[in-house]
């Protein structure tokens, strides 16, 4: 609780600290994409297992975001931010020292647990710090852009680290970053709590983890196992049982991990869907083109990472502009721009062949990056503004869950469709069709969203 209003300089300094945590979260998602071959060779893993290096992190990350947001509202947001940073630091150390592929995946799970504490907590701190709606929209635009920027910057940083050291440096880099972040959080970020204490939904949380893990596992493993393999059939049967059970359990919980009432507001539902499709498109583009440049064209990790810079530049330029547009005209315009950019980016890559020119790829990167940058602020601001400030942790966590589920699904799909393909052009065609379809989906979503409707429709507190 604050005894006096914070100055503008202090508010934006807090934003910078929280955004740095968001940057680290995104970086840990994408920094490994340029090092998958090196990691696999170093730890003797098969190429069809590579997607798990990303998804063992993102699935756990997505699964625990909502619970972490509720815990932050209950036990203190700064305390949760510090705890998450510490877990990320320790898990990163274990990743760097991993003696086997299995140990690496377990350590990546730990990174995901820690990262799940950072994202909703940082957003809650920003929302409670920035009380003016216009300032909040601009701040959320900056905060949200950090995730897109870090995802796009990850391959650049990863390529440079691998070129200078080896794949273990991809994880060592987190350790000093965590130390600096902890010092800044202790010095600058005030403690705050949510107005309502939520009880933990352990059954719902466990079911959510199982559903996401089984879904991603099926996407990754079925192409290798076959649709009629007993393990594949068991996975499909498990989903048929788990999903209805999850719905039944959540509908009876007083405070479920995913609250059905949230989705009665069309603006909130649209924001969640928007976050999902944007990051399906983004992650599929990032992983598939990384494999294309390294495996098909024979580029080094550093050269591949450098090629992604236009995507990062587009996110950096478009995200603040998107936040400004949201504060001035609402969510519909920037979301429509995002839909156009993603659709054109996907269409541009259809038929990508080994002999295609780099400018074609750069153009697609610029379009996809613009699509991600333009979507971040309207999606996050709409979701947060649809709930009371005391529920900002849950709102932010739900949005981030959709974003991370999108990344998990996108990585799994891209890995299954394009990894190890002998004819890359044919194998990648479904990837680009899905990317373009995600852009088209945003048109429908943007038609149902506006900032005014998001702020006027409120979900009453649960009794």
From TrEMBL:
It is a multi-pass membrane protein. The chain crosses the membrane at residues 12-32, 52-72, 84-107, 113-130, 142-165, 171-190, 202-220, 232-249, 261-287, 307-326, 333-354, 360-384, 405-425, 431-451. GO terms for molecular function: transmembrane transporter activity. SUPFAM superfamilies: MFS general substrate transporter. Its main location: membrane. One of its GO terms (cellular component) is plasma membrane. The keyword Secreted does not apply. It comes from the Bacteria. Keywords: Membrane, Transmembrane, Transmembrane helix, Transport. It is found in: Cell membrane. This is Putative drug resistance transporter. It comes from Gordonia amarae NBRC 15530.
């Amino acid at each position: 609780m604050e005894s006096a209003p914070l100055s503008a300089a202090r508010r934006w300094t807090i934003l910078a600290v929280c955004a740095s945590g968001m940057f680290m979260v995104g970086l840990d998602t994408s920094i490994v994409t340029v090092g998958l071959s090196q990691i696999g060779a170093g730890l003797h893993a098969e190429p069809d297992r590579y997607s798990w290096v990303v998804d063992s992190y993102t699935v756990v990350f997505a699964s625990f975001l909502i619970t972490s947001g509720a815990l932050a509202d209950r036990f203190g947001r700064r305390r949760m931010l510090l705890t998450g940073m510490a877990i990320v630091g320790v898990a990163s150390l274990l990743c760097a020292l991993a003696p086997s592929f299995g140990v690496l995946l377990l350590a990546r799970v730990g990174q995901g647990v820690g990262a799940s504490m950072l994202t909703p907590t940082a957003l809650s701190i920003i929302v409670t710090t920035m009380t003016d709606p216009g300032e909040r929209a601009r701040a959320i635009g900056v905060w949200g852009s950090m995730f897109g920027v870090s995802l796009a910057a990850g391959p650049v940083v990863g390529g440079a680290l691998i070129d200078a050291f080896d794949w273990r440096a991809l994880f060592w880099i987190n350790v000093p970053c965590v130390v600096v972040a902890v010092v800044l959080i202790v010095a600058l970020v005030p403690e705050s709590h949510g107005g309502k204490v939520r009880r933990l939904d352990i059954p719902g949380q466990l079911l959510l983890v199982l559903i996401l893990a089984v879904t991603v596992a099926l996407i990754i493993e079925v192409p290798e196992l076959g649709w009629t393999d007993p393990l594949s059939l068991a996975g499909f049967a498990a989903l048929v049982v788990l999903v209805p059970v999850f719905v039944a359990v959540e509908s009876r919980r007083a405070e479920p991990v995913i609250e059905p009432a949230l989705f009665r507001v069309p603006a909130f539902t649209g924001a969640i869907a928007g976050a999902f499709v944007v990051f399906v498109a983004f992650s599929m583009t990032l992983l598939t083109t990384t494999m294309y440049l390294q495996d098909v064209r024979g580029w080094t990790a550093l050269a591949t990472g450098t090629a992604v810079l236009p995507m990062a530049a587009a996110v950096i330029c478009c995200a603040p502009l998107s936040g400004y547009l949201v504060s001035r005209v609402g969510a519909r315009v920037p979301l429509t721009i995002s839909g156009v950019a993603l659709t054109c980016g996907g269409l541009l890559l259809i038929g990508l062949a080994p002999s295609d020119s780099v400018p074609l790829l750069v153009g697609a990167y610029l379009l996809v990056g613009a699509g991600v940058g333009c979507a971040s602020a309207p999606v996050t601001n709409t979701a947060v503004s649809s709930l009371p400030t005391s529920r900002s942790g849950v709102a932010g966590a739900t949005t981030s869950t959709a974003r991370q589920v999108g990344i998990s699904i996108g990585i799994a799909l891209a890995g299954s469709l394009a990894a190890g393909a002998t004819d890359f052009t044919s194998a990648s065609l479904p990837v680009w069709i899905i990317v373009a379809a995600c852009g088209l989906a945003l048109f429908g979503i943007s038609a149902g969203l506006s900032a005014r409707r998001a702020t006027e429709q409120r979900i009453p507190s649960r009794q």
